[in-house]
Amino acid sequence: MSTIGKPLIAGLFAGMSMLGMAVAHAAAPDMTAEEKEAAKKIYFERCAGCHGVLRKGATGKNLEPHWEKTEDGKKIEGGTLKLGTKRLENIIAFGTEGGMVNYDDILTAEEINLMARYIQHTPDIPPEFSLQDMKDSWNLIVPVAERPKKQMNKVNLQNVFAITLRDAGKLALVDGDTHEIWKILDTGYAVHISRLSASGRYVYTVGRDGLTTIIDMWYPEPTTVATVRLGSDARSVDVSKFKGYEDKYLIGGTYWPPQYSIMDGETLEPMKVVSTRGQTVDGEYHPEPRVASIVASHIKPEWVVNVKETGQIMLVDYTDIKNLKTTTIESAKFLHDGGWDASHRYFMVAANASNKVAAVDTKTGKLAALIDTAKIPHPGRGANFVHPQFGPVWSTGHLGDDVVSLISTPSDESKYAKYKEHNWKVVQELKMPGAGNLFVKTHPKSKHFWADAPMNPEREVAESVYVFDMNDLSKAPTQLNVAKDSGLPESKAIRRAVQPEYNKAGDEVWISLWGGKTDQSAIVIYDDKTLKLKRVITDPAVVTPTGKFNVFNTMNDVY
Ligand code: DHE
Description:
This protein is mainly β and about 550 residues long. It has a domain at about 20-120: Cytochrome c-like domain (Cytochrome Bc1 Complex, Chain D, domain 2, Orthogonal Bundle). It contains 8 helices and 37 strands. Strand 17 and strand 18 (about 300-305) form a beta hairpin. The structure holds heme D. The site of heme D (DHE) has 23 residues, from helix 2, strand 11, strand 17, strand 21 and strand 25.
């Protein structure tokens, strides 16, 4: 964990105990205060993302001690108390067919028992985080006037990769031309994503602990120039990209508290916080509608903000931050990740636990379609290509099914007019060796389509990536065993091959080999044309690499 992140997380948890005291349920198993503190930390780091801080469920199941709901006119009840410690221990240790992963290789038997007991208690409610709290956390390390006036290094910035070193709480900037690690910087805990300023000069990261950093790549070596905290649990940031607003604003979304924040794009000075609490598309109040993906429009001065539990998609107009205008579009519940179609007009976002993809027309500010898909779509940002039979398609893999879905998207180009009848339909499902896909990727210059499967329970599948030939999609994909190709010694924990990412030229694909915290991990680079291994970047500092963001492709939404 980074030195920036550690004391702040500890501080937030201290606040949690004071403001949101856990009330022990009468029948919940006993726990000491120390056990509760330890369990609270594990819950935040490992469980809250899927189940929610209030444990009302989203991608994961509801984990309240007791719940009741009405389905088809019938009242049903459930809860962790009903399941009891033994059953909960088994679920945590071995996972479920519903998509819960096994934790027996991540947590010790004692920790599994601790968590099984903890979730039978009433959830802890962490403190709110106000604009004033953000301002108090703001650290402007180098004012804009004191930063370089021009690029002070010779690195080809557009081909740099920002790589999350998850459990180290660090970010590696790797030179995409030389494959050398340029610099490793401290960030928030488990940086979730990096995004690029519209100019390509600044890298923004957001940690799971809400710490946001801005890194200036114009220095001789990349330098963190400001940090700010958004809340206590976060996943997304993006910049203002519309002409005239380049590098002007940054927006960040939090899981806790459920809100989004707007900051100055170069200094991170906090400007505004907007809560997302409210009604779901089903008309129920939700106290914890978390902000999932956020993306900046290229065609309007707007961000698309996807609110997970309510299923509401907000188009936030940033031309007047004081008098903020938002358009709220109803879609489907449990919005998660997504990306643009090839025209950059439609934003395609997975409503993952609803098994749907929502397409937002950012030109008209309306929902264009809600598309039924296979179980638990998880696109990352998705991948666009021209299908030989169906024309332009955007694609998503699935966590819960062994397919990749190809969805036909509209185009203004007359040569694609003949495909109109297919628009917003799943036109083909590509067969994968199993479920557990997280990310798909291709590039306009490539004929290959890459899909990973890191959440598959089979080692062989989770450690491989699968490459389809887009000229002949009837062929089975080529399996590349990334763990074997890395040449690293075998390890006890599965080394998950995750998130294919292209270089700027579109001729190399970089894969993270995400090992255990004490294992040697690596970035494995393949030649996209020949599918031959090109380079393995490994170093003791390359700890648990996950997301990789090529500067040019991220700036321009090339995927
Ligand atoms: Fe992610 C994207 C949330 C687990 C790696 N992840 C996203 C986005 C969200 C999200 C909302 C979209 C951000 C955007 O575009 O603005 N992720 C969550 C979760 O809630 C979840 C399920 C559980 C959690 O507690 O975080 C989760 N994610 C993971 C992982 O386990 C991964 C593999 C490793 C990690 O770092 O924890 C992981 N998520 C990623 C990556 C992206 C991402 C690499 C960006 C993909 C891209 O190409 O843009």
